[in-house]
Amino acid sequence: MITVVGTGTGAPVPAAVAAGAALVVGGRRHLDAAELPAGAERVVLGPLAPALERIEEYVGKELPVVVLASGDPGFFGIVRVLAERFGAGLLDVRPGVSSVATAFARIGLPWDDAVVVSAHGRDLRTAVNVCRARPKVAVLTGPGAGPAELGAALPGDRVLVVARALGDPDRERVERVTAAEAASRDWGTAVSVVLCLDEARALGAVRTVAGVPEQPARWALEEAEFTHRDSMITKFEVRALALARLGPRLGDLVWDVGAGSGSVAVECARLGAAVVAVEKTADGVERVRANARAHGVDVDVVHGSAPEALAGLAGEPDAVFVGGGGRELPAVVTACARRARRTVVVAMAALDRVPAAREALTAAGFACDGVLLQSSRLAPLPGDVTRLAATNPVFVLWGVRSPVPSEGVAQ
């Protein structure tokens, strides 16, 4: 039997649990804080592979093993690895209070509506994008992905709550700082968790499903649900196809270039992505912001003309939507294709812009496809009859980046 004990946020290791252990595995601070039997072998956790091999030797001899971990070891913790290696039936898990629950308790906020993302041993960009998209996020940090790195990548309206050494009566610190303040400091190695908050919305609404936000019941919304000028808006039929090809989701970064009313940007944000909208007109910028507020989402709006404005955007987008079709379109598509990680979608009313846009995508290594989208909507006529009213045809072109073949076997 492997007994997994959660500790480190104020919960001591029960003496009776460790008393009969032949092998005790854990971080150095957990081993030093626990009262362990004199005859037990101790293994300090570093790389997991040697520790797992040692555990396997003791399990094979049917000798009791105790593993010490921080907080709740079933929450982004070692329980997953142990269950995969030895089977869940061999585990006796004694959870402590997670660092996330403890941190929210320290600042008096509920966390059933918080999104929790791990940056420990993972690419920080996913955590950054989730923090940009959601008002209440807990980030589990790691080397190279701590409060300073997170703060440097986030907009100035976010507040970071940095919780260090949770559960240690002498060293625990919980500090509220701006993103800029977080970026300017050296936080050391004792960070337990970082909470990223939009404080105006931090309390949140009553939830039925915890964690990941509820998906919208509808998408490809009617044009009337957005403020726009003279019907200058991506029609819902075009938006439906564009969204299907963009595939926006939580953890993604999406650009809407030539945003106009921002209908595509808002819809991508409603589906969970962090979104940057680039719009060249001042009144268009205000419309995008107004539409984002009306739909309760965050959209970072940049006032500028593409492709020049794209050079100043931080981060590499997962997907890009390009609207409009001026002379600059090939250069805009080229600039977007250079930086897009997954896909670029271009909507054009002018058919003669299609070859140049397609060439820009294929030259950047994208597999390219497209469709001329022409729809007719039901429209009433006098006498209680209905006709079909044609909308303007739009060519939708999309490019998908070919995956880079992996070398060797993933570890």
Automatic annotation (TrEMBL):
One of its GO terms (biological process) is methylation. GO terms for molecular function: protein methyltransferase activity. Pfam families: Methyltransf_25, TP_methylase. Keywords: Cobalamin biosynthesis, Methyltransferase, S-adenosyl-L-methionine, Transferase. Residues 254-324 form the Methyltransferase domain. Residues 1-182 form the Tetrapyrrole methylase domain. CDD domains: AdoMet_MTases, Precorrin-6Y-MT. It comes from the Bacteria. SUPFAM superfamilies: S-adenosyl-L-methionine-dependent methyltransferases (SSF53335), Tetrapyrrole methylase (SSF53790). Gene3D superfamilies: Cobalt-precorrin-4 Transmethylase, Domain 1, Methyltransferase, Cobalt-precorrin-4 Transmethylase, Domain 2, Vaccinia Virus protein VP39. Pathway: Cofactor biosynthesis; adenosylcobalamin biosynthesis. This is Precorrin-6y C5,15-methyltransferase (Decarboxylating) subunit CbiE. It comes from Streptomyces actinomycinicus. The gene is cbiE.
